[in-house]
Write a structure and sequence with these properties.
The complex is a heterodimer of chains A (214) and B (105). Chain A has 214 residues and is of the alpha/beta class. Helices cover 32% and strands 29% of the residues of chain A. The termini of chain A are far apart. The N and C termini of chain B lie close together (11 Å). Chain B is α+β, with helices and mostly antiparallel strands. In chain B, α1 packs across α5. Helix content of chain B is 45%, strand content 21%. In chain B, β2, α2 and β3 form a beta-alpha-beta unit. Chain B contains five helices and four strands. The chains are: A alpha/beta (214), B alpha+beta (105).
């Protein structure tokens, strides 16, 4: 089986995103970046679920990590992990996020463009009082009418029943499934799966309209 | 071939899982088989007869999904008939990629 640290370093090197790397310790890479950017330390995780408690030990390591990359595509990164990372000046995300964050002078400022788009839309919505990030895909949104809703954002190009059920298993508890891909569609079986869960499947435009009910 | 090592690992898992689900059809798609710059994810499509089979495949690939970013698109035959994904999107049967990988090694 591939060593996940070696895989990360190999892929970054193949993609010409870095100049050099050194393995400081298992799951810690010291990376020399291009374009005159200072070197960074990347902590490598491979967990199904990342919570703040998992990040606490990283704070005792010297030098401190600039970014935590978690490898599995369907992993849950809990809201408290994002809060913890932000409080300690660390970026966090998947491998694609790491690749994009490496281009930033301060990797802790990295935000996935879809998340930035979604959060800005919610911030600017006239009926939204505030929202909480529950994890990497779900938010609890509070409206001016005193109601709230938990929504999950899925960016599948083709939403399948397996995607819906996998999302429910990993991210339990949502009332709305929002398709963020503007050209995304859902199979009939995916629609049935959402309905069977008692949730509603909407595109982004409908999601914004439905926020007025909260 | 991009992601050759990763695709070889998926192919090995596909061969193992095919003993349990012989009718499943395995494909690679996405940047591993196109001219896109170095891909991060390995995109794998599996078409199965039933939803139960998609769940089994996802469970069986859990270990591999921790080695590199493995993006699984699991469809039933009914969903594939609706989407025609394997015929309208660039997809290559995993078995044909396995032969290419073996020849080059």
């Amino acid at each position: 089986m591939l060593d996940v640290d070696d895989w990360v370093a190999k892929k970054l090197t193949e993609g010409a995103q870095i100049e050099s790397f050194t393995k400081l310790a298992p799951r810690r890479l010291y990376i020399g970046r291009r374009s005159g950017l200072p070197p960074v330390v990347v902590a490598v995780l491979s967990e199904n679920r990342v919570e703040a408690a998992l990040l606490v030990p990283l704070m005792t390591e010297v030098p401190q990590a600039n970014f935590v990359v978690n490898i599995p595509k369907d992993a849950v990164i809990a809201g408290d992990a994002y809060a913890f990372a932000a409080a300690h000046g660390i970026g966090i995300g998947g491998f694609g996020d790491l690749g994009r964050a490496l281009a930033l002078p301060d990797m802790s400022t990295y935000v996935h463009r879809e998340i930035a788009y979604v959060e800005r839309a919610m911030r600017q919505h006239s009926n939204v009082v505030h929202f909480e990030r529950l994890d990497n895909k779900r938010y609890r949104i509070h409206g001016r009418k005193g109601q709230h809703a938990v929504v999950i954002f899925l960016d599948d190009y083709e939403l399948t029943a397996d995607s819906v059920r996998n999302a429910r298993d990993r991210f339990p508890g949502f009332e709305e499934v929002v398709l963020t891909n503007p050209i995304g569609t859902a199979t009939g079986a995916a629609q049935d799966a959402v309905e069977a869960m008692g949730a509603k499947l909407v595109d982004f435009k409908l999601f914004l309209g439905r926020l007025n009910r909260l | 071939m991009k992601n050759a090592q990763e695709l070889a690992l998926v192919a090995a898992e596909a061969a193992r899982i095919s003993v349990m689900i012989p009718s499943a059809q395995w494909f690679a798609f996405g940047s591993s088989i196109t001219d896109a710059p170095m891909p991060a994810d390995v995109d794998i499509l599996v078409i199965c007869a039933t939803h139960d089979e998609t769940m089994l495949i996802r469970r069986e690939l859990d270990t591999l999904s921790h080695a590199f970013p493995l993006h699984l698109m699991l469809l039933t035959e009914q969903e594939e008939a609706e989407l025609r994904f394997s015929t309208t999107q660039p997809c290559r049967p995993l078995s044909s990629l396995s032969r290419t990988i073996e020849l080059r090694q």
